[in-house]
Amino acid sequence: MDKGLYVAMTGARASLQAQGSVAHNLANADTKGFKAALAATQAFPIQGPGLPSRVDAMLVDPGFNASAGARMATGRNLDVALPGDNWLAVQAADGSPAYTRNGELSITPNGQLVTASGHPLLDENGNPLAIPPAQSVEIGNDGTVSIIPQGEGPQTMATVGRLRVVDASQAQLLRGPDGLMRTADPQQALPAATGSSLQSGVLEGSNVDAAGALVQMIQLQRQFEMQVKVIRTGDDMAQSSNTLLRLGG
């Protein structure tokens, strides 16, 4: 009986963890460039002496949904969308390089180009990109950042740097706890994207299917309730068995 209780308990735990992933997706349904997290379970036999009769239901992380989100034209010079498997390189809070598809950019009062979450954009040399005082800033399709200095005319437009845009497949990236992507193999450098690496004046939305996520949340809740019912039924049967043994003794 305890084997059945153990399997049901691990299944309920995995269902709760999967609900957490779905809830995280729903919370980011409006986050620009967000990629929905995937969740799955697998049977994991427990090793030890005796027969291999105990099996753990374990949550596994298959990665994220790499499909592109809906594009929306904004006409804003600092909004960019990335095609294919292109990712913007940013500096994480710990100073390490990370990657995002959130192209909603802005310039801080001290002239740093940052994402909507405040992470500095990196240039092609891996350094945070700083923007001198300017009356106009434009980002080209190849990632070059150009400005018109304050008080000057269009003929004085100058390039101040180029955004680092990398080409990385889903298998090469892992999502960190801060929502940014990192390389699955830190020893392997990601190649720079070539050609038209981004599109300005456009934003990519989240690829979360809110309706589908809500249905999945309901299914997981019902699954959890069923597993809890199995645990309660098993406990009731164990108590009844103990009562019969006491009566028989």
Would you write up a description of this structure?
With 249 residues, the protein is of the alpha+beta class. 26% of the residues lie in helices and 25% in strands. The chain contains two helices and 16 strands. Helix 1 runs antiparallel to helix 2 (210-248). The longest helix is centred in the last third of the chain and has 39 residues, at 210-248. It is found in: Bacterial flagellum basal body. Its main location: other. Residues 199-244 form the Flagellar basal-body/hook protein C-terminal domain.
Give the overall shape, derived from the CA principal axes: elongated
- Helix and strand content put the structural class at alpha+beta
Query: What value does the Rg take, in angstroms?
Result: 25 Å
N/C terminus separation: 21 Å
Query: Helix segment count?
Result: 2
Largest sheet: 3 strands, antiparallel
Beta-strand content: 15-25%
Strand order, biggest sheet?
6-5-12
